[in-house]
UniProtKB/TrEMBL annotation:
Membrane topology annotation: Multi-pass membrane protein
Protein name: TVP38/TMEM64 family membrane protein
Superkingdom classification of source: Bacteria
Protein localization: Cell membrane
A Pfam family: VTT_dom
GO cellular component, one term: plasma membrane
Keywords: Cell membrane, Membrane, Transmembrane, Transmembrane helix
Domain VTT stretches: 42-159
Main location, first listed in the record: membrane
Transmembrane residue ranges: 29-51, 57-78, 140-159, 171-188
Family to which the UniProt record says this protein belongs: Belongs to the TVP38/TMEM64 family.
InterPro entries (UniProt xref): TMEM64 (IPR015414), VTT_dom (IPR032816)
Length: 203
């Protein structure tokens, strides 16, 4: 089998590979999405498009969303177990880092939500970074749900690509871009406020 090159080739290759598995195809998609969400070796959007192409919007989104949340949970668990260790203090590095850690934990799901919506925050590295903080698992999972609307858009793009109306999906990309840019602005403003608050606390 020839290795895929362009993103379009990757989607076609993944779709064909899963389709050949028959009834096991959806499970293979979920497993692949889990590994991609936990490792970041490929953009998760490619699996979303492949899921939509192979399964359609409804079933494709269910498979892609299950894999994404499972990958997020896997990476968070790995980070807590292996990277953060069992130290109750969480991050180390002095009073400033400890204060930042407390502030991030206090923001909880709201900060996680903005990180998931912002296109400048890669999914897997963000998951591992959050695992090193004091963010609670419940806040982490709740905030990570914000990644699913964007995933739904990619699944729909994959599903629409099977029809003659694929060109009409451009507005979905535009909405996704506007949402991501807005979340990035809000995230930067929130981080700026956190930095100013921490600077004011320093002696």
């Amino acid at each position: 089998m020839v290795a895929p090159g362009t993103p379009g080739d990757v989607v076609a290759w993944l779709s064909a590979l899963c389709e050949r598995q028959g009834a096991a195809g959806p499970m293979m998609l979920i497993a692949a999405q889990t590994l991609i969400a936990a490792s970041g070796v490929l953009p998760a959007s490619l699996l979303g498009i492949a899921a939509g192409t192979l399964l359609g919007a409804g079933a494709g989104f269910a498979a892609a969303a299950t894999g994404t949340m499972a990958g997020a949970l896997l990476s968070f668990g790995i980070g807590r177990r292996l990277l953060r260790g069992r130290r109750a203090g969480g991050l180390t590095g002095g009073r400033w880092v400890a204060a930042l850690d407390r502030s991030v934990a206090a923001e909880g799901w709201r900060l996680v939500c903005l990180m998931r919506l912002s296109p400048v925050m890669p999914f897997a590295p963000t998951s591992y970074a959050l695992s090193l903080s004091r963010v609670r698992l419940s806040d982490y999972l709740l905030g990570t749900l914000a990644a699913l609307p964007a995933l739904l858009v990619y699944v729909m793009l994959g599903a629409l690509g099977r029809t003659a109306f694929a060109g009409e999906a451009e507005w979905l990309r535009g909405c996704l871009l506007v949402l991501g840019l807005g979340a990035t602005v809000l995230l930067l403003r929130k981080l700026k406020r956190l930095a100013g608050r921490l600077a004011g606390e320093q002696p």
